[in-house]
Amino acid sequence: MAKTAQEKADAKAEKLYKKTHKQKYKLSPGDILFEVLNYLIFTLFTLACIFPFYYLFINTISNNDMVLKGTINFIPRGIHFGNYLALLNVGDLSTAFLISVARTILGTTLMVMASALVGYLVTKQEMWGRKFWYRFLVITMYFNAGIIPVFLNMQMLGLTNSFWVYIIPGIVAPYNIILVKTYIESIPADLEESASIDGASHMTIFRKIIWPLCKPILATIAIFGAVGHWNSFTDSLIYMQSAPNLYTLQHRLYIYLNQASNLKSLMQSGGAVSEAAIQSALSGKIIKYTISMVTVIPILLVYPFMQRYFEEGIMLGAVKG
């Protein structure tokens, strides 16, 4: 099909623009040097961040004897995936994995729902005691009773040695509520006013208007919550003293790290260590590497899918429009 006169004129103008634009913004030698150094520095920084994970991964899939000798540094040898399959037979590791997954999904879901609802409520002028409750939430970010009083409180509430100690204390997250509140305040008030004129209640407005518009900031706090739940082990260490079946995956990794460190210290001090204990420590090193990869992979897989919402939400939620 022949081009019209207008299309020819547009193509000519575009060609002329590219030519003049290229001449106008031609890079000088200094600019080229800066670009090269910039890319070089960030490439080295990226490699420095990636290498620890790469090192762990190649040691989990390489020949175990070579790993124990410390000869695997850059290139995997004797590749196999038996270590990951062997984790299924390591104590209660599969149970710990399920506990971590369950607390991450349930805890993050309830935290996001509570943050969205409370963040919306504290933006309403007609809320009873709005300023008091909002300031009360903010104060809790700066003051904490300490480990012992909190433990005693959880014990009196019957939450120790219970799965719910992972979930209930983290449902109300003041920092996330502040992010959601600030984000909601950036939404044009005309949307709520028009819905209110049509007879919509606050809950209807929240469910049909506020919730869909808050997806970026909700995805942001969901990442915060999921990473926090997945990586947490201190609550398992403190509250699950009589319930090893409720240990999280991070707590199990902590136990394996301590066992290997204690045995190494005993060997260095000249203590009597049996051959079986030494072999257990050596295999524990491989288990430690493999568990470390298993604990990292889920978060690495989740973040790329949430990155777009994360960047948009953290910017809009941090600055009121």
Entry summary:
By secondary structure, the chain is an all-alpha fold. Helices cover 73% and strands 0% of the residues. It contains 14 helices and no strands.
Question: Outline, from the CA principal axes?
Answer: flat
Give the overall average pLDDT: 79
Radius of gyration: 28 Å
Report the total helices.
14
Q: What is the straight-line distance between the termini?
A: 49 Å
Structural class: mainly alpha
What level of helicity do the residues show? Answer: over 70%
Count the E strands.
0
H-E string:
HHHHHHHHHHHHHH
Q: How much of the residues is beta strand, in percent?
A: under 5%
Low-confidence stretches: 317-321
Report the major sheet.
none
What brief labels describe this structure?
single chain, 14 helices
Describe this structure in words.
This protein has 14 helices and no strands. Residues 317-321 have low confidence and may be disordered. The longest helix has 44 residues, at 275-318. The protein is mainly α and 321 residues long. 73% of the residues lie in helices and 0% in strands. It has helices at residues 5-24, 29-61, 64-69, 82-86, 93-121, 130-139, 147-156, 174-185, 189-197, 202-213, 215-231, 234-239, 249-268, 275-318. Helix 8 packs parallel to helix 14.
